[in-house]
Amino acid sequence: MKKKISIEGMSCQHCVNHVTEALKELEGVDKVEVSLGEKQAIIESTKEIIDADIKNAIEEVGYEVVGIEAL
Questions:
Q1: pLDDT digit string (tens) for 44-55?
Q2: Half-sphere exposure of 38 (CA within 13 A, CB side)
Q3: Which long-range contacts (CB under 8 A, 24 or more apart) does 67-71 make?
């Protein structure tokens, strides 16, 4: 399963690292790619991850999720 998360508030590589680490902590996430330029993250997982859990993980580290879509 693959999902694209649109994120606002990232302005530097430090922000990318925060989001990457937050998403890697979610159970079932196998791969995380965060793009500062595209303001998005793409995650791959072996099981279904609830969108609310993704949103909460990112917002807990200080960024805003503006959209989540399955790829």
A1: 998 899 999 999
A2: 9
A3: 67/5, 67/6, 68/3, 68/4, 68/5, 68/6, 69/3, 69/4, 70/1, 70/2, 70/3, 71/2, 71/3, 71/4, 71/42
Q: Is 59 exposed, middle or buried (0-12, 13-18, 19+ CB in 10 A)?
A: middle
User: Can you tell me the distance from the alpha carbon of 58 to that of 5, in angstroms, rounded to the nearest whole number?
Assistant: 10
- Mean pLDDT across the chain: 96
37 pLDDT tier (thresholds 50, 70, 90): very high
Q: Please tell me the predicted confidence (pLDDT) of residue 24.
A: 96
Token digits of residue 3:
């999902």
